[in-house]
Amino acid sequence: MSNEAATATTAAEAAPAPEPIPHGLGASLPAADARAKTEGTFPYAADLWAEGLLWAAVLRSPHPHARIKSIDTTHAREMPGVRAVVTHEDVPGSPLHGRGTADRPVFASEVVRHHGEPIAAVAADHPDTARLAAAAVIVEYEVLDPVTDPEQAFEAEPLHPDGNLIRHIPLRHGDPDAAGDIVVEGLYRIGRQDPAPIGAEAGLAVPRPDGGVELYLASTDPHTDRDRAAACYGLEPERVKVVVTGVPGATADREDQGFQLPLGLLALKTGCPVKLTATREESFLGHVHRHPTLLRYRHHADAEGRLVKVEAQILLDAGAYADTSSEALAAAVGFACGPYVVPNAFIEGWAVRTNNPPSGHVRGEGAMQVCAAYEAQMDKLAKKLGVDPAELRLRNAMATGDVLPTGQTVTCPAPVAELLQAVRDHPLPALPKDTPEDEWLLPGGPEGAGEPGAVRRGVGYGLGMVHMLGAEGADEVSTATVKVHDGVATVLCAAVETGQGFATLARQIVQDTLGIDEVHVAPVDTDQPPAGAGCRGRHTWVSGGAVERAAKMVRTQLLQPLAHKFGMSTELLQITDGKITSYDGVLSTTVTEALDGKELWATAQCRPHPTEPLNETGQGDAFVGMAFCAIRAVVDVDIELGSVRVVELALAQDVGRVLNPAQLEARIEAGVTQGVGIALTENLRSARGLIRHPDLTGYSLPTALDAPDIRIVKLVEERDVVAPFGAKAVSAVPVVTSPAAIASAVRAATGRPVNRLPIRPQAAVVTGQ
């Protein structure tokens, strides 16, 4: 043997064996598209192109409330390069659309009801031409006084043919005459947050030879979007196809249909592909936001601090149209008392129309707003009783078997006390240094104006809960198909990957069930059966359940011939690490050998147990399942400047079962960081209905420098027996809980009430020090 060969052999022997690629449930399987996204090669809607492409632009109302006296498109139509201009007169089908209620016009015709409402749309051969033509549409307005105070909406003239009141829920639970020894009251306001997706809306519409149209969109609910578009275009749903492009993040309903619908209309009118890429300002004006909320609370407790009664009034500002405000109100009213045992509750909830920007589904809607209020009330009770805030919460913590104010028994795991004890007992972070050299310790960051002597540290707590899936009788169903050919598995399911990790989870399910390493998830379009919207953990539960059932059906097809050959049932065979073995060791073969060129496939559905609408007194089993979270916040506050630095957030969460540890941790950290923005910086401000600074300069998102240390102290894996895999959604409940915990910590540091989110600097200033 030569020296070179000996050296090569020694090096090969010394080289460590390659680490096995993680697979199956419980492994930290990396996302299939992670490399493309990090390298910038992943295709998004804004990257799409087609031969003969035209560009679109939308004219939006500059007024929050006005009567339209005339619309003149003559100048726009006559501009060189303009191919089409459409208004309300060009809508061949239903003129109205909407996610929850169809009450929103495709184009305003007689009245505009919010700043940025679409009036007309233009298609031209260049994007600049399209924008100039849209600006050339002459609209004569009679400006009307906007109704921007939701309290005034009850007495104001109707802003919509359906009236100003969208929904009223009067919840009645227990004895109205019950009273406690200790009573605390509070008035709370929650501002308007925007989903602020990484990429603004973009899409492409391509006309079809059959007179239909294909829409290439970053849709999170393609079948619903298709059906609404078909109704608008006056077409059968089969002639409209929605193809889901890469979704650049979604923490809410990703797409504004006021953007989608004009796109298809222009393609149908011109017979050419039409592309529309929204500016960030158009994105802020068009899509829905979190409901600004006004909350009044009165808590009654006995001398030991146990809750006796909760009274509350909750008012959601829906903006101009209903959208999903009814669902948000149900969540707000249902969880108005939080994860606490409350024998008597009397809650009044309203959602009303105003001329403010439209509100709708944003992660944790309804639950986030009430969490901030009821946790502030718990702090007030603790202070009045002279009890430790964590101890007061423990005395009232909900558990499995307790009853919500809606009358629904909590049958899922509810380890609320365990979660709170975990964060309470976790060691606190070190105190700031006394020397001023480390400027990062100041709430202003480097170059901050604060002085170390003005900094006060506070510790606060938040307990939050959310519901999973739809509520009040929503038919939650998803369909999936699993195919196996040439040793490769393919999953077909219209569940959109929005960043929540469904595509990765689907691969893990099939790997775990069939023992096949190579699993692909097919692109999503409406030729597949529907899977529903990508929110409230639906796809982990419903779509994941459908994939699991389909994979198990394929597994049976794979194992039946072997079981028959050896005279045993398929239940006596197991698949582990790509090998099929029998309980007694008689049979041992590989999945590849068993497949032997076969093509197997199966389609299955998953539908959770039904729920029911809340009745006239707010009672009913309205929610499929619930998830819980406890957070301890540590903040430093400069009491002279009112600046706040979140030092650490310690979290314990009820997750049911960890399916992908790395993905779960990332989802929790992202949710907590989003909550930091809600607590301190994010507020889409408006003045008399006009959005002020609709851009990422005026709307302050938290950056990596604002993110605190996030300590995941405990994950409680107590499986929910009615959920596939026993898992629970993980991203929404940290969003709900962290703002309340941060506000609690600021109260502890300053002694101020802190009754508004986001927390304004003046609310954290302490005078007379």
TrEMBL record:
Residue segments, region Disordered: 1-28
Domain Aldehyde oxidase/xanthine dehydrogenase a/b hammerhead: 39-145
Biased composition (Low complexity): 1-16
GO molecular function, one term: iron ion binding
InterPro entries: Ald_Oxase/Xan_DH_a/b (IPR000674), Ald_Oxase/Xan_DH_a/b_sf (IPR036856), Ald_Oxase/xanthine_DH-like (IPR016208), AldOxase/xan_DH_MoCoBD1 (IPR008274), AldOxase/xan_DH_MoCoBD2 (IPR046867), AldOxase/xan_DH_Mopterin-bd_sf (IPR037165)
Gene3D superfamilies (UniProt xref): Aldehyde oxidase/xanthine dehydrogenase, a/b hammerhead, Aldehyde oxidase/xanthine dehydrogenase, molybdopterin binding domain
Name of this protein: Molybdopterin-dependent oxidoreductase
Organism: Streptomyces muensis
Organism phylogeny: Bacteria, Bacillati, Actinomycetota, Actinomycetes, Kitasatosporales
